[in-house]
Amino acid sequence: MFEKILIANRGEIALRVQRACREMGIKTVAVHSTADSEAMHVRLADETVCIGPPPARDSYLNKAAIISAATITNADAIHPGYGFLSENASFAEMVADHGITFIGPSPEHIKMMGDKVIAKQTAKAIGIPVVPGSDGAVPDADTAAQLAGEMGYPVLIKASAGGGGRGMKVANNESEIREAFSTATTEAKAAFGNGEVYMEKYLGRPRHIEIQVLGDKHGNVVHLGERDCSLQRKHQKIFEETPSPALNAKQRDEIGEIVCAAMRKIGYYNAGTVEFLYEDGKFYFIEMNTRLQVEHPVTEMVTGLDLVREQIRVSAGLELGFSQKDVTFEGWAMECRINAENPRTFAPSPGKITGYHAPGGRRVRVDSGMFAGFKIPPHYDSLIAKLIVQGSTRNECLMRMRRALHEYVIDGIDTTISLHQAVLAEQDIIDGSYDIRWLENFVAEFAKK
Ligand code: MV4
Q1: pLDDT tens-digit profile of 366-401?
Q2: Domain span at residue 17?
Q3: Ligand 1: does its nearest atom lie under 6 Å from the Cβ of 156?
């Protein structure tokens, strides 16, 4: 097992990874920018290395600085968390080239899933259902128009190098397709330096349901059920739950089995998430994330597993200590992402937290590095806490989440706590009948109140 792990991240996820390390008796190295010197993940680490100035490109994205920090502290492994360098294949390769273990999948798997056209072709080839669409990249507007005519409108043009909703254009009819193709191509080229696009049938009101997988380096893969992440604003999730109110046990087993079999075929290891759109009882693959995800705690709540511990174990070459039949799901779990933002305009609200009291009690978990007196730097994203609760039933879970939100005090800055309270009072949410379009309508109304 590793003796020392460098955590190449900040905020709540740096702390989350550090907690798993400490419980496993592994020493930790925190890296930080000059803006994060006072952060909790730095205060609680065994060793710290300042890796640069506040802008992420000069610190948390600085590959050489991070690898140097690992080398001088003698770290055996690097955990990238999520975001930053977590899905950067060349970083994973560099880490390995320095004799350090990258806690994640192989660089080849990261690369494969980072290119959305290759990811989709691979998914299809290994038996995962995909959205009907172009077979690979669409070379020009004429081809796009011809394909769309055959497929039927509306269609969606997506960037091969995109993902997370960046670089998508809808075309509702033939008069829109050429325009959509050229804007998508131009925008993709500007944003990603790669103008390649592909096309899909546009699904109107799907849910976003993702399957968590875990694999080791010996060919074992299990799935840990799904998360329903349909409540998103501008491709940022704000609330997640498991199980999905839309699925039954048979559907879960079926899609879980399909995903596991597929992952075994490509020899995938470490944590991964296969994202689907779900509409009219059918799953359609959209992307695969080759990292630990923000919302992983809801899965931990219902399975009783520690995903970071499992990531570390499999990275060290150990076999998964359990098989699919050992994975059981208990009750319900939900997560509210608390952002330092105005709950109506979503304008970032960095600054000093003057008062802080986190909720507690049975089946309540808070993943956060916040404390009274902490000054949230303006340089990074606005996620400051994740509130995760579990209940025996969905209703118990919902009641507990409302109770925990009521207890949460964060003074001095704006947060999205009141938005969550309003969302959780809605009948559609109580009924579990929401899709990826629900939140944008709700926030438009909420902004007026
Ligand atoms: C789609 C879609 C409808 N039809 N693909 C957005 C993020 C990226 N991962 C894929 N996305 C979508 N792909 C087809 N063929 C609608 C979306 C989409 C979306 C998906 C999940 C969660 C929120 C979303 C919000 C807007 C659009």
Answers
A1: 999 999 999 999 999 999 999 999 999 999 999 999
A2: 4-91
A3: yes
